[in-house]
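Practice record 12: protein with oxa(dethia)-CoA.
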Amino acid sequence: MGAKILSIAAHVPEKILTNRDLEKIVDTSDEWITTRTGIKERHVTKDNEFTSTLATEAAKKALERAGISPLDIDMIVVASATHDYWFPATACIVQANVGAENAACFDIEAACPGFVYALEVGRGFLSLPNYKNVLVIGAETLTKITDYTDRSTCVLFGDGAGAAVLTKSEEDHFLGSYLKGNGKLGDLLILPACGTRKRCSEEVIKNRDHYLKMQGREVFKHAVVGMQEAAVKAVENAGITSEQIDWLVAHQANKRIIDATRERLGLPEEKVYINIDRYGNTSSASIPIALNEMYEKGLLKRGQIIVLDAFGAGFIYGALVIKW
Ligand code: UT7
């Protein structure tokens, strides 16, 4: 027995922040943001919208599309770097919101590759006898940990969520994977305070250490190498050739990083799905948001081979080769 993705869905907040809006907040320009990142606008939550709010909406839609009752879900895994609370887990809030009363639930923090990691975790559970359906979610409200006085990061991030229902399948649709970490470089992309190491304090707030910090240029270099390595190794592990790939759906952090990954795999541009222009970097939500758009546009066809590939804080990175 293997596993397959039964349905995909996503939800983003209504409010949109454009590059022109950001020009009024920090010293930046639409031209700089577009050429350096590919981003034109991003969705942002209001004060009364949380990671669980977005995750719940995506989950409800994914369940509806899968045609199964919330009561048939055995496990909920939420990948997020922006959980509602330290605890309870955001997955438990989603469980209550959708009425998945028979499900176990927990969160994982695997930054931008969170959805890729959570899919691996989900399909791992499906190899056990007592799990039949797993709900896997990538959900983020990164704009709540973004410093809108720091032009080097605040132009990058957006909010959103995506959800997939995984189910047991006689044919395994998970063809190959490669997950890797490099914890030595964690300081290059970090939320330095309000953890147990540096607790929240007036000083922390004054220094703005409760916001995400990134050394973009350094992260960029490692992201290019990591994304390429993950994609190539996952394809190797799947025992397929590049010619067999129908789609590369990569974490939407920077169009230039995605282009470099595409070139390494030797894929033409039309085999890569890019929507960073409308969402920015939504971390663990970016891949399921992209998959959902592809599904809604009718681009995803059963049997197609898709490479999912992501890199993020940790550093961690990873790729999966799946059959849709
Ligand atoms: O999702 C997790 C993984 N994250 C990533 O993969 C992100 C990886 N990093 C990147 O995508 C890119 O490094 C950035 C988009 C963040 C930055 O692009 P860059 O081409 O690496 O620019 P840079 O940081 O080297 O900065 C170039 C210049 C600097 O000015 P000087 O020193 O050359 O005078 C910056 O101060 O651009 C300046 N700059 C800006 N200018 C206008 C930085 N941010 C901005 C801005 N608007 N928003």
